[in-house]
Amino acid sequence: MADSSQTNSSSNVTKLLEFFHLCEKLKTTKRTGWIYHNVENPESISDHMYRMSILSLSVNDPTLDRDKCVKMSIVHDLAEATVGDITPYDGISKEEKKRRESEALRHICDDLLGNSPQSQEIYALWQEYEDATTKEAKFVNDIDKFEMILQAYEYEQSQNKNLEEFFESTKGIFTHPEVKSWVEELYKNRKPYKQKITQENTG
Ligand SMILES: Nc1nc2c(ncn2[C@H]2C[C@H](O)[C@@H](COP(=O)(O)O)O2)c(=O)[nH]1
Ligand SMILES: [Mn+2]
Question: Dihedrals φ, ψ of 30, to 5°?
Fold first, then answer.
């Protein structure tokens, strides 16, 4: 039997399980931006965060705390388990989106995780990402958008979708030199969308 100081009380364990179950929403909630474009079988919020953690492990930048970037990647959209995946086109201001997400994260960290040291780290990582002032946060903000256009490219290729909007809205926003090289390579490989010529088009 583990030493009691290292175990949680039974009510805390009950709340931990509630948190773990809440995280299922990240696995089941499809990303809204793809839904709006009728993408078939769109990725979930956690799919997006998982690949961001892989990008964090892959970057060749010794000045970056990559472990921190991995942690930041997997918590940056955690609040979406409660508030959902809000896009810039939903008519919800950045301030309101941040208020909802901050409230959701406070509930998770205070009510479900009992303001434990672990929950304080989760909240601090989320806040650092939102403030976007540290090197790690700027990098993770970059790969949040790079991972999105990477996925847009893949849907364009596999489903012959026109997802130009995602490329337009992220033009010129990348700051990290290596991420910029990834973006350049992606643009080099991107094939123009081919309008499917159907019977009615040809008359
Ligand atoms: N239709 C569009 N949707 C977009 C665009 N930029 C972001 N988004 C979507 C992608 C996600 O579903 C959601 C927010 O993603 P976060 O990872 O930032 O939470 O917004 C766009 O240009 N067009
Ligand atoms: Mn994101």
Answer: -75, 150
**Probe residue for ligand 1, chosen from 39, 145, 148, 165 as the CB with the greatest number of ligand atoms within 8 Å:** 148
pLDDT, tens only, 172-186:
999 999 999 999 999
pTM of the model: 0.93
CA of 172 to the centre of ligand 2 (A): 18
Per-residue model confidence as pLDDT tens digits over 64-117: 999 999 999 999 999 999 999 999 999 999 999 999 999 999 999 999 999 999
Per-position b or e across 151-188, b if 16+ CB within 10 A of its CB: bbbebbeeeebebeebbeebeeebebebbeebbeeeee
Return the ligand 1 atom nearest residue 77 CA.
Answer: 19
Ligand 2 center–CA 76 separation, angstroms: 6
